[in-house]
């Protein structure tokens, strides 16, 4: 067995920025989940452009997105700014949800219907959708792939609020079940994982487009009836 010590350097550092997509055009307040056909709103496109400008000077060598339209459209200006082809990774998709396609507004949505209550019996799994543990596995694998593709540089990964929050919670050793209103993962935000070699050594969070995000959609904001029209992740 060798007694040599391996010394890690800055060349071993890789940053994977995991971005939530911008605002979606969703006037009916549908929980769109994995449904096709939901695109960025004009404001959402401005958010995507803002983050592309924010990252323009960074050493980004790989850009990848969930297959859903809103994620692809968010990632496009970032890939273009760096002269890169946009990759797609199915593992970055939104979490599965039994309420997909239903109205989920404050006081006027699916939770008022007793027939839906049976899906809410276990918030720890959760019983209404894709298990948190499954989200952790696929997201960690997707991040690892992005890290390998951009090793020694930076990658941008565009995904959705719940999978991003769950993988961050796992890395930071928090419980996976949580109050959705307290997720720190606003529209067009960046949750940045720094790897030294293959090990995550830090997690950062920034909101380059915060001034463009409607106040009621910021983390911790009190839901307002009739204004949750960008619901989803």
Automatic annotation (TrEMBL):
This is Histidine phosphatase family protein. InterPro entries: His_Pase_superF_clade-1, His_PPase_superfam, PGM_Phosphatase. It holds the Pfam family His_Phos_1. It comes from Streptomyces coeruleofuscus.
């Amino acid at each position: 067995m060798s007694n040599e010590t391996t010394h890690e350097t800055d060349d071993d550092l890789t940053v994977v920025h995991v971005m939530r997509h911008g605002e979606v055009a969703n006037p009916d307040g549908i929980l769109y989940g994995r449904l096709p056909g939901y695109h960025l709103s004009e404001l959402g496109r401005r958010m995507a452009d803002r983050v592309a400008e924010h990252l323009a000077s960074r050493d980004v060598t790989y850009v990848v997105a969930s297959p859903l339209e809103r994620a692809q459209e968010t990632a496009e200006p970032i890939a273009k700014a760096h002269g890169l082809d946009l990759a797609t990774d199915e593992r970055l998709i939104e979490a599965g949800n039994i309420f997909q396609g239903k109205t989920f507004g404050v006081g006027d949505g699916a939770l008022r219907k007793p027939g839906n209550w049976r899906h809410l019996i276990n918030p720890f799994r959760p019983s209404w959708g894709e298990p948190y543990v499954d989200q952790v596995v696929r997201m960690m694998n997707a991040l690892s792939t992005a890290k390998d593709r951009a090793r020694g540089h930076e990658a941008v990964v565009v995904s959705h609020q719940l999978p991003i929050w769950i993988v961050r919670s796992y890395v930071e050793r928090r419980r996976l079940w949580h109050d959705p209103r307290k997720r720190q993962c606003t529209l067009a935000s960046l949750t940045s994982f720094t790897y030294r070699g293959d090990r995550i050594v830090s997690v950062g969070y920034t909101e380059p487009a915060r001034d463009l995000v409607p106040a009621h959609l910021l983390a911790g904001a009190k839901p307002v009836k009739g204004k949750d029209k960008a619901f989803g992740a």
